[in-house]
Amino acid sequence: MTPTTIIALGREALYIALLVAAPMFIAALATGLLISILQAATQINEATLSFVPKLVIMFGTLVMVGPWMITLLTDYIRRLFESIPNVIG
């Protein structure tokens, strides 16, 4: 097992992790931005106001994008397990 192989495996794992986390982060960011604009426009300064909409939007995003996330992860794990003989030997 060479250092190049280890770096390639680590890089691919980080890339997959970012791809899987991105939809949830983008949904939370967009929801937070919209709630902040709404709070600024109405001058409601309540910190807990954004919690429930973020939770609902992130749950909806998980329902919509969840199958894609699971497929991406299972494909990566399958490829990783199939490459064990090549990495070791």
Automatic annotation (TrEMBL):
UniProt keyword Ribosomal protein present: no
Annotated InterPro entries: Bac_export_3, FliQ
One Pfam family hit: Bac_export_3
Location of this chain's protein in the cell: Cell membrane; Bacterial flagellum basal body
Domain of life: Bacteria
Transmembrane domains' residue ranges: 12-35, 55-74
Keyword flag Chloroplast: no
Topology with respect to the bilayer: Multi-pass membrane protein
Primary site of residence: membrane
Signal sequence region: none
Keywords carried by this UniProt record: Bacterial flagellum, Cell membrane, Cell projection, Cilium, Flagellum, Membrane, Transmembrane, Transmembrane helix
Function: Role in flagellar biosynthesis.
Similarity comment: family membership: Belongs to the FliQ/MopD/SpaQ family.
Name listed for the protein in its UniProt record: Flagellar biosynthetic protein FliQ
